[in-house]
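Changelog note: in this version the structure field was regenerated for every chain. One regenerated record is shown below for reference.
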Amino acid sequence: MSSIVIDRVSADGTTLECDVRTSADLERFFTTESFRTEYDVSIEDVPEGVLAIPVLAQVCPVAWANGADVYVDEVDAAFARALEDVKASLLSMYDFLEGGTLYAKRTIDADPADGGESGLLFTGGVDSTCSYVRHREENPTLISIRGWTITPDSADDEDWEHLRSRVSSFADSHGLETAFVESNMLSFLAHPMLLAHYKRHVDGAWYSSVGHGLGLLGLCAPMAYARGIDDLYVAATHWEGIDLEWGSRPDIDDHVRWAGTQCHHDSYDLTRQERLDVIADYVEAEEPTLELQTCNVRMDGNCGECEKCYRTAVGLRLSGLEPTAHGYPFADEEYREIRTALEEGQWVLGQDELHMWADIRDRARETEPESLEEEVFFEWLESADLEDLVSESASPLSHRLLRAGARNAPTSVYNTVYPAWTTAKSGLRRVRSGR
């Protein structure tokens, strides 16, 4: 029987460490690393049932993909129920998931710590900044996580410091607290092997398409307990009317809960352009110099040339803001560059981007162009086949063949060629970033 066993959960000061043992058929989906997470607050007084949440949040989707059972000594009762709800949502979303059962020796109703606080996963991008604006009266703790888009590898140290500096500066200027979390959740999992097996079933990667809503929120559990956070917000990527298979949605995130904490998928009622409208109103009323950070290439500012920078700059224009005043070098001549990049498939686009450019197109229909270049671009966008633009930028054949080979490779062979997987993944990240 396929199984995942959480052998050990320990807290030493601010460090959480867990050992995991699997049945032979699941070994390929895990590396030899123990699961580790570093917080900036002591977690030694957090109940074991809450300490187990971060690792369970990472391994349970892997178990469900393989019909495996998960075993743990102790778990918070509210989170155990949450896992059942999240599992039901994911199984209804993906046919390839099989399910599985969580077995705990002890299920506890952990008494919540002194509460009354709120927290927000925050990067300074459009979505999380909109969520801050909407919940600013709560003075939420701004939470930044290292382990997914910024990896624990030393090569990403500079990016992490840029993010920490930017978030800390934002928090200081707004009278907020910060929380920084560092985890090896994706090097503890053999994420490239998960991608090799399941990429054909999903639009994005494993973590973005399946794991990141439950995974990122669950990672915060010990810190949220220690800080007395009752409400934990994660900003929506999509919005009502977009039924994409994605790892962070209301029917996932809103189910996640544990002793004293309820998670919320925030601003799903607004399109991305409407979120920019919220930010524009806030800029006009309170913070005219607010800068956003959305770049796919840099963490110390916006390059102004990747797809996400261009898309955000155009969106800012449509919300009545000048991009150059909010972190985006942009001139009317850039519209020709955007059109060329979209037509020639220079960016790797998915269904996310299709809907976001469609959202821009909808707003452009009711907006008076500010220049001839803008008018020409919006006329082109009105007639462009966005579905065709997305299909033209599909994953290269070499990556598809590499994934197929890895799916069928023995674990020993896979372990030997793992560095090649890392190189391939880095290359794909560069393509997606528009480098």
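Spot check on this record: The first strand starts at residue 3 and ends at 12. The radius of gyration is 22 Å.
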